Structures are given as structure tokens and as C-alpha cells.
Amino acid sequence: MGILIERMKMDDLDSVLAIEDEVFVFPWQRESFAEEIKQGSEFYVTKEEGKVVGYLGFYKVKDEMQLVNLAVTKERQGKGIGSELLKWALKQAKSLGAKKAFLEVEKGNSRAISLYHKFSFYETGIRKGYYEGKEDAVIMRAEL
Ligand SMILES: CC(C)(COP(=O)(O)OP(=O)(O)OC[C@H]1O[C@@H](n2cnc3c(N)ncnc32)[C@H](O)[C@@H]1OP(=O)(O)O)[C@@H](O)C(=O)NCCC(=O)NCCS
User: Fold this and answer.
1) Residue 80 has what pLDDT?
2) How many domains does the chain have?
3) How many CB atoms lie within 10 A of CB 124?
4) Strand, coil or helix: 138
């Protein structure tokens, strides 16, 4: 399966925010995405028939990649889009010089965790009460 991935633009934000509200308990706000776009951060979308169906963002600092965002609209989940986005981002980060990747994921998010395992991420620690003091986060790492 191949998907087309492009840089997130201001015009994409309405649909990105709709997905963000749909899939996350603590969604990012418009200003946060807008700031990343202005900064030229590594934030990307994939579209079907011109409509955003998934997106992802990461930071590259020195030789580390930090994945900060990954989501696929509910209607299109389970069809390989998340895997394609992540595969592409890991490759992109590696080409920018990253040697290792980190992310935080809600401890109870078994679907995302199994996706990360598929890409060789392993658990390196727990951040207690990371999500608004309620849910713990699992810290995961992969070598690129
Ligand atoms: C996590 C998420 C991005 C995965 O995207 P997706 O397009 O649904 O994922 P894929 O179809 O590529 O599936 C990837 C893997 O996820 C897991 N997965 C997919 N559907 C699943 C299901 N119904 N039940 C359990 N695991 C499932 C599997 O490990 C799957 O790999 P496999 O197909 O080789 O078995 C998506 O479900 C999502 O947006 N969830 C809400 C937001 C979120 O939790 N983001 C991550 C925050 S850290």
C-alpha cells in the first residue's frame, strides 16, 4: 500500500482538528498546530480525495526523533494508514540524521502500543500521571 504524504498546511487545520477531537481525550488546540507549521516543524498529513485522513508530527533534535502526534480518522483506522505514516516518518527522521526515536503513549492504548511494537519500539519507562494527572504514559524507544 502506498499513501501520499505532504507537509501540513494552515488549510489542513480544520480537518486535522476534527480528527484530533474525534480520537483524543486531550486534543491539541489550533494554536499549537499553527505554531508548528509556522516553525516549519516536521508535521505531515495524508489525504484521500483531498480530505485529511491521518497526520503525524515529530521533532528532530540532534540525533533523536521525538514522535509527538499520530492519528488516523476513526472511519479509516485499521487499514494500514497509521503504519504507512509511521514507517515514512521513521525513514524521514533517519534521513535527517536521527539515530533513535522516542515517544510517549497512554498506558491503556494497546492499539497504538502494538503498532509501535511492530516498528521495533520497546518500553523504557513510565511517566506517572502524564495525561492530566490521570493516565500514565509509557515511554518507548526504537533504534533507527
Ligand atoms: C494508533 C493509530 C494511529 C493506528 O492507525 P491505523 O491506521 O488504525 O493503524 P494500522 O491500520 O496501520 O494498524 C497498525 C497496527 O495497529 C494495530 N491495530 C490496528 N487495528 C487494530 C485493532 N482493531 N485492534 C488492535 N490493534 C489494532 C495492529 O498492531 C496493526 O498492525 P497489523 O495490521 O500488522 O496487525 C490509530 O488507531 C489512531 O489514530 N488511534 C487514535 C489516536 C492514537 O491513539 N494515536 C497514538 C497516540 S500515541
Assistant:
1) 97
2) 1
3) 10
4) strand
